[in-house]
Each structure stands twice: as C-alpha cells, then as structure tokens.
Design brief:
Layout (H helix, E strand, L loop, with lengths): L25 E6 L7 E7 L4 E8 L7 H10 L8 E3 L2 E5 L7 E4 L5 E4 L2 E8 L4 E8 L1 H4 L6 E3 L3 E4 L2 E3 L5 E3 L4 E6 L7 E14 L2 E16 L1
Parallel strand pairs: 6-16
Antiparallel strand pairs: 1-5, 2-3, 2-4, 3-16, 7-8, 8-9, 9-14, 10-13, 10-15, 11-12, 11-15, 15-16
Length: about 220
C-alpha cells in the first residue's frame, strides 16, 4: 500500500494549508482545540504506508481503555491501537516513504481501515486518474455530509493547481485527474475531508486525510 501514506480522523478546527511534501518536512494536518480536549488517535503502519485515525468528542466522560478498544474494533483497528492525545498532531510527508511505481494503464488499489485509494497513470493522455472511497466502517460513524477540500498535488517537487473540492454524502466515490504527468514524473498528492461523527452514541467532529506518493512509468 505504498500509495496510501496518511489518513487522520481529527477535529478540523484549524487546518493548515498543505506544504510541499519534501522529505524530512512535517505536514501539519489538524489541530486539537481547548474546547475539544477529548481527542483520540490510532496509527497503523503497513508495508507501504501509515494511517492515523483521530476523533474529538464534544464532551462527557473520557473514554476508558475498554471503551477505546470497543471503538477500535468497530472501526477495524487492532486492540490497543486507540490512545488519548493532546495538542496538535503532525504526519510526515509521503516523500519519506518509498514511492510506489504507477505503470501505464494499470489500475492498482490500496485499502486500509479508512478507505480505498485507486490510481492510474494514463500515459496516452499524460495524466493520473485517482479515486477514493471511504470504508463502510468509517461511513457508519459519519453523520453529516463530507466536506472535501480537493486534492493538492506536487509534480517533481513543484506544487500544481489544486483539484476542485466537493460537499457530498459519505458514500460518494471521490475522484479526479492530475495533469500533466509524464513518464518518470514523481507525483505526490493528498486530500482533506471533514465531517461530523457519532462514536458510541456520542457526537464529535472528524476529518480524514490521505496522501499518496507515486512515480509514473510506461
């Protein structure tokens, strides 16, 4: 799953604009606020990427270890994965992981507990077509429309024009096109989605961040 580098479920109180994801640069994806101290996160690392799940509840008692494990099981996470966090959370840029090779006209997909990313290098038209679908388990706790900011992307380290955003239902198949992309180009792209959630009967605010790092090859 080399393309899927980061996903975050978090309080989107102060989203920073994505910075160029050069190696060694921390990209700030979300911040916790004083009004939402009950924030929980889980990080999962696979052979190809890292996923961080984060959510902030509106109020009430803090979740116990048993509560967190029940929530983690509901969302498809391993036992003990969820933990209480405070302050801001940063994710390392996709460039710090090995770039996935995206072959012309191949249609690979990469899945984790939060969703499935698909990408295709369409060398005949010099572009990359991408798609992202939020997982059924994550959809089950989303209670509002999803506000997608639109994919930000970089080609060979240079920032390119951002894709258009959407405000749509949780089951929507997000998709777009990155162009121009030619043979040998190193392409990094990431998206940010915000929504309301209900966790264990309690409301909260969440977001999903995913990022990909690919090299286009004929």
């Amino acid at each position: 799953m080399a393309a899927v580098a980061a996903a975050v479920l978090a309080a989107p109180a102060a989203q920073a604009a994505p910075a160029s994801p050069a190696a060694g640069v921390a990209v700030r994806t979300a911040h916790a606020t004083a009004s939402a101290p009950q924030t929980y996160a889980a990080t999962t690392t696979t052979a190809g990427g890292r996923t961080t799940l984060r959510f902030a509840l509106d109020g009430g008692a803090k979740l116990s270890r048993a509560d967190l494990d029940r929530v983690g099981s509901q969302l498809g996470l391993g036992k003990g994965s969820l933990r209480a966090v405070s302050g801001s959370v940063t994710q390392r840029a996709a460039a710090e992981r090995r770039s996935a090779v995206l072959r012309c006209d191949k249609n690979p997909t990469w899945s984790d507990a939060n969703g499935t990313l698909a990408a295709r290098f369409n060398c005949h038209y010099s572009n990359i077509n991408w798609g992202f679908k939020i997982s059924a388990r994550l959809q089950s706790v989303i209670t509002s429309n999803v506000n997608e900011s639109g994919v930000s992307w970089w080609r060979n380290g240079k920032r390119m024009p951002k894709n258009a955003g959407h405000v749509v239902g949780r089951s929507y198949h997000f998709h777009g096109t990155l162009k121009p992309v030619k043979h040998g180009d190193h392409v990094q792209f990431q998206d940010y989605m915000t929504f309301r959630v209900r966790i264990g009967g309690r409301p909260g605010t969440g977001s999903l961040v995913w990022a990909a790092d690919v090299t286009a090859k004929k």
